[in-house]
Amino acid sequence: VSHIRFATPSIGYLFGPALFMTVDGGETWQQLDSPPVESLEATGGDVVRVVYDQTGCPGPCNRTVEEAPVGSDAWQTLYQIPQGAFLDTATLILQGSQTIYLPIYGNLAGGEPESTLFRSLDGGQSWQQLADPCADASIPPMSGAMDFASAPGGYLAALCYSLSDPMTWAVMTSHDSGTVWAPRLPLPGSSDGGLIAVPSPGTLVVGSPPTSGGGPVTSTLSVSTDGGSDWETAVTDQVNLTATPLGTSLWLGFEDAMTGRWMGDDQTIWTTTDGGTDWTARSFAIG
Question: 66, exposed or middle or buried, with CB in 10 Å at 0-12, 13-18, 19+?
Answer without folding.
Answer: buried
